[in-house]
Amino acid sequence: MATLKTVLVGKTKTFLFPPEGKPWHSAINKTETEGAVWLGRTKLEGDDQADLKHHGGPEKAVLGYADSHYPLWRQELNLSDFTYGAFGENFVITDQTEETVCIGDIYQIGKAILQISQPRIPCWKPARLWGIDDLTKRMETTGRTGWYFRVLQEGEVQAGEQVRLLDRPHSEWTVSKCNDLLHHKKGDQKAFLELAACPALAESWRNMLTKLAARM
Which intervals hold domain MOSC (predicted)? Predict the structure, then answer.
């Protein structure tokens, strides 16, 4: 059974990369917590979300990431210190990947109940943070993006707890399949509209897919 390997939170910081560049603000630098952490409707206690247009809110309360991806990244990037929190995630989870979780999956972790709402669309910040220009593209190409949860029931969560599947209403829409559709099959209007009709998918994704399909 999948396990919550670690829980990470972070505060907003100002970055200046490269030194002569324009300052940017982010809470992407997450650190591991100890003990139970309260998970509310929009975020974990102690966690900042600097860009509320693209992060946070009820549909993107928590970012999950697969523990099994990290050895691959360390090998591919030749970075021994590339470890948990590198992508700004809140949950690192064992025995789950984008290929094994689905939109609409409902899980219980500790006292909280969560539902997968959408894949993560990688932004430029991980690449800027690590100084790896093509990191965002690599995330899209490999499909190792992570996924967002909405919170159905608030409660405390803690590293080491089981991630227990309660319901899987849309087994046809793995996060991997959604990623592949968005990044690699941009001409498949029928599939775009089928995914947009999935009621468990975040509204922002449904709107985006509908607009993209209309342009095809």
Answer: 31-166
Residue type at 128 in one-letter notation: R
The residue type at 108: Q
Residues in the chain: 216
Residues 39-94: tens digit of each pLDDT: 999 999 999 886 766 677 899 999 999 999 999 999 999 999 999 999 999 999 99
How far apart are alpha carbons 36 and 32 in whole angstroms?
12
Q: How far is CA 131 from the centre of its chain?
A: 21
Find where tokens 């090998």 sit: 75
Burial letters for 183-216: b for 16+ Cβ neighbours within 10 Å, e otherwise?
Answer: beeeeeeebbbebbebebbbeebbebbeebbeee
Q: Which residue type, as a one-letter code, is found at position 172?
A: E
Global pTM? 0.94
Map out the domains of the chain with their CATH numbers.
3-170 (2.40.33.20)
